């Protein structure tokens, strides 16, 4: 709503917005992201109770109609607008010793709504410069599409600012190429990050890394790949840095820039993991090849904002019967009348979610003659939702959705597919050697995007230093210690 | 990487601002001197009692400005209806184009935020 108001103001047409109490800064952020001053735009807050329920008391509207009229006729911003780039200075904090100064810095960051609530590593010039050795790009280069603006606030994701976030997250220079690629994926217009960062859905990006870089960086693809894991720390640091970029640069702060009702534990570090490329059945292609058509072994990543994630138990496979049981387990979890599947045509035409299949499951299924495409077809066919369930769970609105967006693919009275075609279902092999459990991560509000990971010229020396600091690269955690 | 200073009587720690830079590229639209003779568009995401609030606002404004022309929100695509939730359609190129086509001089946007 704030973006709509801002777009109209850009046409030179004055607007006034009717909002519920507490949403002024949300709308203000949307305006700031489109180049307006960050101060409050022309809005009128009304009591929340006026908006909730049926037949509510509208007397506040009657009593304040003059304010709405004022908003269109006389309102002016509190400060005259000046077109400029606002670049904050570095911050100095003092303490009786180094630890005292670090504590002061963390207290200050909490007061300023920066960070995620946990202590952060000080983003000093020295540390940020160290992180920047992980890229050949100049520190002032803007990352990603849309001028590198991270919405809703529209702060710039420069290489330096991305490095600041990675420094705060306890990252290392060799992580920077992956983080830069992830930001490119997030800022890809197809990702519509301004929606999933601000929505009431409790959304977080899943980042799937393919290629040799995953092992080089110790990004986990095996046991415990969604973390936490001290032997494979890269995913947590990169994912936490993504959160800092969204919250600090983009102002996706709870109750102000993101209205996610539950937020969610996965938001702290998001989900940054690798595909278990050694465990992919010989007859299957890796995710980045089958879904995006990248050359095999290329270093790439996929960004896909998801909401709910669920453990799919009972995916052991030893014969044809258990293969069917396993796939039915997956399709059973996918077959929920989840509004986001059909919320918007782009969502229905995109991926409905990510199936994580451990190598033990994937290899058995493949050995029984299933191609990846067969599996997608099976999951698609068996996740259709009976019409009665659609009507019962979503109400009469489903008939309107069908007319509006997905008329080509869905029919009133017939079972509904969760996506327009089987190949939209993302299947990633990850989770280790056993076959007992899988994972299903449902889409949030946008399409997946991808980006290539560009390595700096000093890549080998960065990896050598990492081995000195962190020890030898552990074998992929396919089995527990 | 070198260590920061570890001990001192008073240590100063200089860090980057985590929020970074942003830009202001434009100001807000100028307001109208009078609503009489002007066209006001209603834009709704179709939720939270919009189907009651907009008609009331319309009536109250018309009472003060009898010559105002108000284009109801029902003449724009507006999401999935007042009982269905959802706010996608309001930030849509089609709506922005319609605002231009309908000659809107001002807009009231709702509902709820």
Map the helices and strands.
The complex is a heterodimer of chains A (481) and B (113).
Chain A: H1 2-10, E1 15-20, H2 24-33, E2 43-46, H3 59-63, H4 65-73, E3 84-86, E4 91-95, H5 98-111, H6 125-132, E5 149-150, E6 155-156, H7 159-168, H8 176-187, H9 193-196, E7 204-210, H10 213-217, H11 234-249, E8 271-274, H12 287-290, E9 300-313, H13 320-334, H14 345-349, E10 353-357, H15 359-367, H16 372-381, H17 387-394, H18 397-404, E11 426-429, E12 437-443, E13 449-452, H19 459-470
Parallel strand pairs in A: 1-2, 7-8, 10-11
Antiparallel strand pairs in A: 5-6, 7-9, 9-12, 9-13, 10-12
Chain B: E1 11-15, E2 22-24, E3 39-44, H1 50-64, E4 69-71, H2 93-101, E5 106-112
Parallel strand pairs in B: 3-4, 3-5
SSE order of chain B, one letter for each helix or strand: EEEHEHE
Task: State the end-to-end distance of chain B.
Answer: 47 Å
Largest sheet, strands/sense/barrel of chain B = 3 strands, parallel
**CA gyration radius of chain A, whole angstroms:** 24 Å
Uncertain runs of chain A: none
Shape of chain B: elongated
Question: Biggest sheet of chain B, strands in spatial order?
Answer: 4-3-5
Which percent bin holds the helix content of chain B?
Answer: 10-25%
Oligomer: heterodimer
Ends apart, CA distance between termini of chain A:
51 Å
The largest contact between protein chains, plus residue counts on each side, is: A-B, 109 and 71 residues
Poorly predicted tracts of residues of chain B = 80-88
Compute the number of helices of chain B.
Answer: 2
- The total beta strand count of chain A reads 13
Helix content of chain A: 25-40%
Give a description of the structure.
The complex is a heterodimer of chains A (481) and B (113). Helix content of chain A is 36%, strand content 14%. In chain A, strands 7, 8, 9, 10, 11, 12 and 13 form a seven-stranded mixed sheet that branches. A two-stranded parallel sheet of chain A has the order 1-2. In chain A, strands 5-6 form a two-stranded antiparallel sheet. The longest helix of chain A has 16 residues, at 234-249. Chain A contains 19 helices and 13 strands. Chain A is globular and about 75 Å long. The model of chain A has no long low-confidence stretch (mean pLDDT 91). Chain A has 481 residues and is α/β, with parallel strands linked by helices. In chain A, helix 6 (125-132) crosses helix 7 (159-168). Chain B is an alpha/beta fold and 113 residues long. In chain B, strand 3 (39-44), helix 1 (50-64) and strand 4 form a beta-alpha-beta unit. Mean pLDDT of chain B is 81; it is low at 80-88. Chains A and B meet through helix 1, strand 1, helix 2, helix 4 and strand 3 of A and strand 1, strand 2, helix 1, helix 2 and strand 5 of B.
């Amino acid at each position: 709503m704030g973006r709509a108001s801002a777009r109209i103001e850009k046409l030179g047409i004055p607007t006034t917005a009717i909002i519920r109490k507490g949403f002024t800064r949300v709308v203000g952020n949307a305006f700031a992201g489109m180049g307006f001053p960050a101060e409050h735009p022309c809005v009128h807050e009304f009591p929340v109770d006026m908006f909730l329920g049926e037949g509510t008391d509208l007397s506040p509207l009657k009593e304040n109609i003059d304010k709405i009229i004022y908003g269109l006729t006389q309102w002016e911003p509190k400060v005259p607008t000046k077109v400029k780039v606002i670049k904050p200075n570095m911050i100095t904090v003092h303490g009786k010793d180094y630890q005292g100064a670090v504590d002061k810095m963390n207290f200050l960051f909490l007061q300023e709504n920066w960070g995620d609530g946990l202590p952060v590593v000080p983003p000093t010039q020295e540390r940020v410069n160290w992180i920047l050795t992980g890229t050949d790009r100049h520190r002032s280069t803007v990352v990603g599409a849309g001028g590198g603006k991270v919405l809703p606030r529209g702060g710039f994701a420069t290489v330096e600012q991305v490095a600041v976030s990675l420094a705060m997250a306890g990252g290392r220079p060799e992580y920077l190429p992956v983080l830069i690629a992830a930001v490119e994926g997030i800022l890809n217009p197809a990702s519509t990050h301004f929606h999933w960062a601000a929505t009431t859905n409790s959304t977080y990006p899943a980042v799937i890394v393919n290629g040799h870089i995953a092992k080089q960086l110790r990004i986990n693809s095996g046991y415990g790949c969604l973390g936490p894991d001290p032997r494979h720390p890269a995913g947590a640091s990169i994912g936490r840095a993504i959160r800092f970029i969204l919250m600090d640069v983009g102002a996706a702060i709870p109750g102000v820039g993101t209205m996610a009702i539950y937020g969610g534990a996965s938001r702290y570090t998001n989900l940054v993991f690798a595909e278990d490329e050694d465990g992919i059945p010989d007859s299957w292609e890796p995710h980045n090849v089958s879904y995006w058509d990248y050359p095999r072994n290329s270093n790439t990543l996929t960004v896909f904002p998801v909401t709910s994630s669920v453990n799919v138990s009972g995916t052991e496979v030893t014969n044809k019967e258990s293969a069917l049981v396993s796939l039915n387990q997956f399709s059973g979890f996918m077959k929920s009348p989840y509004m986001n599947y059909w919320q918007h045509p782009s969502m229905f035409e995109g991926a409905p979610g990510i199936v994580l299949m451990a190598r033990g499951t994937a290899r058995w299924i493949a050995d029984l003659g299933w191609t990846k495409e067969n599996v997608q077809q099976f999951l698609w066919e068996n996740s259709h939702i009976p019409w009665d369930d659609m009507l019962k769970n979503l109400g009469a609105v489903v008939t309107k959705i069908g007319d509006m967006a997905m008329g080509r693919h869905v029919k009133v009275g017939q079972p509904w597919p969760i996506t327009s075609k089987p190949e939209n279902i993302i299947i990633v092999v990850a989770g280790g050697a056993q076959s007992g459990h899988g994972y299903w991560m449902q889409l949030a509000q946008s399409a997946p995007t991808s980006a290539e990971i560009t390595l700096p010229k000093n890549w080998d020396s960065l990896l050598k230093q990492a081995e000195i600091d962190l020890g030898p690269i552990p074998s992929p955690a396919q089995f527990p210690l | 990487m070198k260590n920061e200073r570890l001990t001192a009587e008073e240590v100063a720690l200089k860090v980057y601002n985590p929020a970074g830079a942003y830009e202001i590229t434009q100001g807000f639209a100028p307001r109208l001197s009078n609503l009489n003779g002007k066209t006001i568009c209603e834009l709704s995401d179709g939720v939270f009692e919009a189907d009651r609030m907009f008609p009331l606002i319309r009536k109250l404004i018309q009472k003060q400005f009898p010559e105002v022309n108000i284009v109801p929100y029902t003449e724009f695509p507006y999401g999935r209806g007042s009982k269905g939730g959802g706010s996608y359609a309001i930030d849509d190129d089609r709506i922005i184009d319609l605002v231009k086509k309908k000659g809107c001089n001002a807009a009231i946007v709702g509902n709820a935020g």
